[in-house]
Amino acid sequence: MTTVSNGVNVQALLDAREALKDAPEAARFVWRASSTWRNGVHSTTTVKEFFGLGEERSHRSEAVFDADHPEVFAAEDNGITPIEYLLVGLASCLTAGVASVAQNRGIQLRSVEARLEGTHDIRGILGADSDVRNGFDDIKVTFEIDADASRQDIEALVAQSQKRSAVFDALTNPTNVTVEVA
Amino acid sequence: MVIERGEVANSWRRERWDSFRLLTPNWQSRLPGLAYEGPDPDGYMTTKEVTQLIERFAALSGSPVRTGTAVTSVRRDGDGYLVTTGDGEIACRTVVVASGACNVPSVPAFSEAVPPSVRQLTPFDYREPGRLPEGGVLVVGASATGVQLAAELRASGRPVTLSVGEHVRMPRTYRGRDVLWWMDASGVWDQRHDEIEDLERARRLPSPQLVGTPGRTTLDLNALTAMGVELVGRWAGVRDGRALFSGGLRNVFSLADLKMERLLDTFDVWAREHGRDGEVGPPERFAPTRVPESARWQLDLGSGEIRTIVWATGFRPDYHWLDVPVLDGKGRLRHDGGVADSPGLYALGLPMLRRRRSTFINGIEDDAREVIDHLARYLGARH
Fold it and tell me: InterPro entries per the record (chain B) (predicted)?
């Protein structure tokens, strides 16, 4: 296990789990994003500050995300569509999970690739059919993983990464969302 | 002195549904000095038979049982405890809490948002399908209780939907032997609380998807699908009168399938290394859990489709009478292998108290011996 290195500091995560077990206040994080309308359906969202372990914190640098719609939507395509950001979130969350679980289980990873497909009937958002929902109908994630492990162990990595994934949970279970005008 | 709120084997008499049978085969349903000697060692006891077994044990052991005596309070008093009952007070040096882990059915808070037109039952209220209204039933939870009630309700002709979260899949028999024979013989059941990596998780594990039937049939989710039970994801909440189910159903199938395979691998390795391959059948592997073409993730509870909800969502202990500060933030007893953090206070019969077999009838013997050794040393050291 000591020879395995996927670059994840599992000990720090295990220590945090122990330390936060009976400290729900410290474990409460608030993630934030702020967006500004540009023009048309183009907007820019920045992410930098967050709250956690009892205090305000910030990323090393601010990240900026442009969102727009493609030209087939009669838009300028200055960035990916908002719903594609959900795929970005899901892919990166599951991949992080695979690496962490592999590290914890002493499995050396050589490569981890994931392909994601979210099928989406846009009649929902267009209001063309009230029986069609706005969001994805279905999301499919396919991992290709090269690692020192059996297929069964790799499947277990992927299963465990879903079990502990924030974004997988946020997409598969309902979440209360409050939107208001300041 | 043994204090019992009702009669001997009270919960077996009153808190089980009619068709209930033990998960363990008869030969395993043994108590110290009381082995099964009946004609059907591979069968599974009904509640009546379990009640008789426990009555026989009470007589055989000569235990001074005080029945019909409910404990209303246990508190520290000097260097011992004062136990208050409906029948007076008892001062004692030591107390063993043996009231079990399944005193109250746990039902999620969102059950309050279920429309009143839908009847809600827990396994404590449920007796048999005939007492339910006609029409669809939503069974919540896929442990032994959930799969058994879903199967029985479906067999009664009702449309049944089963909400499935994380679960423990097991075949009833493996390589020709009861799967619990393997748990026993291979030593899996003897894994100790101080050897398990994630004890917290092991103690929360739902009961395995098993049923005790004369035909020793497997009652996994594939069996339920074949009966026409509709599977949906874990019930996450109610919004606008609609039940919302998790879209993560595939993954709970994968987790359970993978865990079952690892368990069967453990059995195979054990059989090979201990030269037991000759006395059992060849290794078997089972089809993965079939994923429904498209699992529903919402259900209109006001549409009349579902007339009854059966909450098979587990149980919790009830310690409202325990006035000793030994509970954790979630109301569970803090203990190390049955030794509570209050001198002279002990527990028995909790999940993984000392080993994986702790909650099975045959699990009490070793646990009790070790806990009582500790208790006797405690008393001895003080005289």
Answer: Auxin_biosynth/cation_transpt (IPR050982), FAD/NAD-bd_sf (IPR036188)
ipTM of predicted complex: 0.88
Whether B190 contacts B266, CB under 8 Å: no
pLDDT of A1 above 80: no
Q: Where are the alpha helices (DSSP H) in chain B?
A: 10-14, 47-61, 144-155, 179-185, 199-204, 221-227, 249-273, 364-381
Q: Answer whether A172's CB lies under 8 Å from A136's CB.
A: no
Residue type, B188: V
Q: Which chain B residues touch A if contact means CB-CB below 8 Å?
A: 166, 233-234, 236-237, 239, 244, 246-248, 251, 254-255, 258, 261-262, 294, 329
Contacts of B246 in chain A (CB under 8 A): 172-173
B250: Cα within 13 Å, side-chain hemisphere: 16
The bridge status of strand B71-77 relative to strand B80-85 is: antiparallel
* Residue type for position B159: P
Cβ contacts (< 8 Å) between A94 and chain B: which residues? Answer: none
Does CATH place domain A1-8+81-173 in 3.40.50.10950?
no
A41-68 pLDDT, tens digit per residue, is 999 999 999 999 999 999 999 999 999 9
Is there a contact between A80 and A42 (Cβ–Cβ < 8 Å)?
A: no
Say which of B246, B258, B294 has its CB closest to residue A155: B258
Domain boundaries, chain A: 1-8+81-173
pTM score, whole prediction:
0.93
How is residue A25 written in tokens?
């206040």
Give all domains of chain B, ordered by start, each with its CATH number: 2-103+316-381 (3.50.50.60), 105-315 (3.50.50.60)
Q: Do A172 and B244 touch (CB under 8 A)?
A: no
Residue type, B306: I
Strand partners, B119: B308
How far is Cα B167 from Cα B21, in angstroms, rounded to an integer? Answer: 20
Chain B CB within 8 Å of residue A173 CB: yes
Q: Which amino acid is at A49?
A: E
The tokens 């994934």 sit on which residue? Answer: A165
CB atoms near residue A27 (< 10 Å): 15
Task: Give how far B382 is from chain A: nearest CA, Å.
Answer: 35
Which residue bears the tokens 């090393």?
A60
**Residue B217 corresponds to which tokens in the numbers above?**
């049939």
The one-letter code for the residue type at B104 is V
- Residue A40 sits at the vertex; the CA angle it makes with A34 and A43, to the nearest 5 degrees, is 20
Q: Which helix (DSSP H) or strand (DSSP E) does residue A135 occupy?
A: none
Residues linked to residue A64 through DSSP beta bridges, in sequence order: A46
